[in-house]
Amino acid sequence: MTLSSRWPAVLQAVMQGQPRALADSHYPQWHPAPVTGLMNDPNGFIWFAGRYHLFYQWNPLGCDHRYKCWGHWSSADLVHWQHEPMALMPDEEYDRNGCYSGSAVDNNGVLTLCYTGNVKFDDGGRTAWQCLAVQNDDGTFAKLGPVLPLPDGYTGHVRDPKIWWHDGLWYMVLGAQDRQQRGKVLLFTSADLHTWASCGEIAGHGVNGLTDAGYMWECPELFELDGTHVLICCPQGLAREPHRYHNTDPAGWTSGAFDYQTPAFA
Hints:
By secondary structure, this protein is mostly beta strands. It has a domain at about 150-260: Glycosyl hydrolase domain, family 43 (Tachylectin-2, Chain A, 5 Propeller), CATH 2.115.10.20. Helices cover about 10% and strands about 50% of the residues. The chain is globular and about 55 Å long. Belongs to the glycosyl hydrolase 32 family.
C-alpha cells in the first residue's frame, strides 16, 4: 500500500494530536503554526466569502521537505486564526513528490488554488506541472489536475505560480530555471485558468541586461503599488558580496513598469 492511498488515515492520526499541541505552553499564541511537522512558504493569501484564508507548505509527517501538503487557516480579523482541513496533499501521480507553492483566486465565486505538482524520478531528474483545485461546498478541495506542463527550454525547476486577473485575462508568473541553469521569471496568460499561452521571460538572467542572477528564481510576485509595478522573487545562487547575499535563499525586489499590451516588465 502506497502512502498516497493512506493519506486520509495518516491525516486523521496527525489531527488527533491537535488538542494536545494547542494546549502546549510552548505552542505559539500569536503566530499561526501547524500542530506538527515542518511548515514553510505561506501562500494563497486571499479574502473570500467573508474570511481571510492563508495556506502554507506543510509536511505533517516530519521536519524535512518531503510530502509537501497545503495546510489551511482562516480568520475574520487576521489575529485569531482557525485551523481548517488540509487543502492539498500529494496523492496523485502529477504531484506525488509534493504540492508546492502557488496562489488562490476567486474565480466567479469559486475559491480556486493553483499550485505546482512536483515529480521526481529515480535517475535524479524531475518535472513540474502547474495544477488547479477548487473548493467544494463542504470546504474541502477537489483537484482538477494539471493545466500547464513543463515549458520547453527549462529544467524541472519551474514552480510557484502567482495568478491575478486584469482586464479580461488571467496572468501567471512562474519562477524558473532554464537549461543553462539560469534563473528566470516566466509570464503566461489565460481566459479560463485552464488553457495558458506563453508570453516569454519577463525577468532574470539575460533580461533587461541583467547578468549573474543566480541559477533559479523562486516564488515570484508582480503587483502594482502607487502606480509602480513591483516584482518580488527569491533568487538562488547569487554570488556573495561583502554585505549582501550571504544567505542561501535571499528575497529581493525590483520596481519598474509592466506593459500589459506587450506584455513586458522593464
